[in-house]
Amino acid sequence: MSGGELAELISRIGDRVLPVVVQSVGGEVLTLAYANREALELTARTGYAHYYSRSMGRVRMKGEVSGNTQRVVEIRGDCDFDSLLYLVEQKGPACHMGYRTCFFRNAPGAERENVDYSLAVLRDLEDVIERRRREGGENSYTRSLFMKGREEVYKKFGEESIEVLLAQGRERIIYEGADMLYHFLVLLNLNGVKLSEIMSELSRRRR
C-alpha cells in the first residue's frame, strides 16, 4: 500500500475496527488481529505492529511486554478496504502460548500437514539468517558465508556434517549438531528453500 493509499485509509476508517491478517515475509500466516484508526496510525509512524485489543479496549504494540515484536514490511488492503494484511518480520513466537503461529491446532478429523511448531527456534534462526544475508555488517559470519559464495557454503556444511560423525559423547554431538543445523539453514537459504518445505516433505512421507 502506498503512502497516499495508507493516508486515505486512515482518514476513512472512522470509528471502525478492521480485522488484520498477519503474515510473515516468508508467507506463513501468524495471527488474526484488529486495528482501529489509532493503531493504524501508530503502526505507520513507528514501523511496528500496533493492534486494538477488544478485550482490554485499548491499543497496544505487539510484543510490548514479551518483546516478540512485529516489524511491518508492508500493509495491504483488501478490495473493499475493510480488512488488512500486514507482512511482518516476526521476532520470537507470534502466539502468546509460545508457538510460532497462532494457527497451530488442527481441526478435528483433519490430516496433519502443518509444520511442527516446537521447532520455533529453527524458524527464528531461519529469519535471522535471512536478515543477516541482507543487512549483516562486516563482522557478520553469516553474511561472510554468502559473500564467499556457493562453494564455501557447501564446504562448511560438509565440514560440520563430518564433525557430527566424529563427535564423541552426548554433549559433543549436541554441540556439533547445532553447528550443522545452522549451516544447513544457510545452505537452504542460498537455494531459496524454506524450512517449512522440508517439514512438509517429511509430513508427506509419514502419510
TrEMBL record:
Swiss-Prot/TrEMBL catalytic activity: 1-(5-phospho-beta-D-ribosyl)-ATP + H2O = 1-(5-phospho-beta-D-ribosyl)-5'-AMP + diphosphate + H(+); 1-(5-phospho-beta-D-ribosyl)-5'-AMP + H2O = 1-(5-phospho-beta-D-ribosyl)-5-[(5-phospho-beta-D-ribosylamino)methylideneamino]imidazole-4-carboxamide
GO molecular function (one): phosphoribosyl-AMP cyclohydrolase activity
Keywords on record: Amino-acid biosynthesis, ATP-binding, Cytoplasm, Histidine biosynthesis, Hydrolase, Multifunctional enzyme, Nucleotide-binding
Superkingdom of the source species: Archaea
Catalytic EC class: hydrolase
The keyword Hydrolase is annotated on this UniProt entry: yes
Gene3D superfamilies, alphabetized: MazG-like, Phosphoribosyl-AMP cyclohydrolase
GO CC term (a single one): cytoplasm
Family: In the N-terminal section; belongs to the PRA-CH family.
Keyword Endoplasmic reticulum recorded: no
GO biological process: L-histidine biosynthetic process
Listed HAMAP family: HisE (MF_01020), HisIE (MF_01019)
Entry protein name: Histidine biosynthesis bifunctional protein HisIE
